[in-house]
Each structure stands twice: as structure tokens, then as C-alpha cells.
Amino acid sequence: MVLGIPVTGGNVSLYNQTGSTPIHPSPVVAVLGKLDDVARRTPSGWREDGQAIYLLGTTSAELDGSEWSNLRGHLGGLRRKLTSPRNAPWVKS
Fold this sequence. Notes:
Elements: E1 7-11, E2 17-18, E3 21-22, E4 26-29, H1 67-71
Antiparallel strand pairs: 1-4, 2-3
């Protein structure tokens, strides 16, 4: 578990493709927790049409796999730069 989170499935190979069309990686992770009050949970998805997405902090062109790219039908882009020292064992430059 290099990432510290179990990857339980998904297409995570970097070499998969159908003909000349690459298949984008789609890892599936498993994360569990306990809520003391389920009424205070953060819901997933949108509650109503017209809600906004706000980008906070430093941003870059690394928006592949984001909700922004999904809404705009954008596939591709730059992969996220892994700068954490925790990621160093599996990052190759």
C-alpha cells in the first residue's frame, strides 16, 4: 500500500488500450469511517442545478480527473505533480 489507501479495483494499468485508443486509468479505492450523526454528513453529488464549483488555493493545468473536466467533457491534461516526500518512493522523473 504505497499510497496508504487500498486500491481495490479499477483499470490502473498504464498500458491498456483498445486498438489505438488508450483506456484512461480509473482506480477504485476503499475508505471507511464512522459518523456519529448521519444527519450532519456531507452529501455526494449536486443537490440542485446551477450550483457552482470554486477552485481555492494555487491552481494549475492539472485538472484531469476533476469535476470541472467531467462537466466540460475534457479528457486528458497534465497529470498531477506529486511533490509530497511521502510519494518519493514511487515517483520517477
